[in-house]
User: Fold this.
Amino acid sequence: MDRRPLVVGNWKMHGSIASARALARAVASRGAAYPNIDIAICPPFLHLGVVAHELRSSRVELGAQTLSEFEHGAYTGEIAAAMLSDIGCHWVIVGHSERRALFGDSIFAVAAKSEAAVAAGLTPIICVGETLVERKNGTTNELLLEQLRPFTENGCVRLHKAVIAYEPVWAIGTGETASPNEAQEVHEFIRATIAKHNAPLADSIRLLYGGSVKPDNAAELFAMSDVDGGLIGGASLKAEDFMQICGAAS
Assistant:
């Protein structure tokens, strides 16, 4: 099946209002050069407004880096899915490894956040991946099955409006990258796991690779048959690098 490539920039906790505006403007101005892929950027919460303004007439879409599983209420410091939709978001990252490791997002919380996103009309980008110890121990597939378990139940109903991003934790911000073949192997496993529960969905769902994707390795990674684009961290903070990666996906 022809799966439209998707490239998403995760800015994490970087930048100022001025730098966010400048970076968003640079990406927006060049997004039209890649009409055959989808492009999104996910700035910090406080920069969503200025970035939304810069993207308003472009084909680059807005995303957020996480959300609350709760619809509304007394949840100090949290951001509801409807609030993200209201400011112009189309996408939201769910279950990033940093959220799981540093802020305790459990597999069940990740599933609940994904459902909240879909209910508000957002597309969740569900992150899964293993640590270096887990890879060395040969438990990558076992861990992925556990992270995917809340989503593969009931015919994968929770995945019908989602994207999955495989991010080997050992390759995030370390300069290490899974080889194209290593990435393909895991993406193929994820797709096969989904196929056991819902074959048509397995063919159509987009799987992104996230783990130190750079302009010089993006083309090789994106050439793999089950890699449908990338979730880009550090390289998304430089417009030139990010757009070169978009070019590789295109």
Q: What stands out?
A: The longest helix spans residues 180-195. Residues 154 and 199 are 13 Å apart (CA to CA).
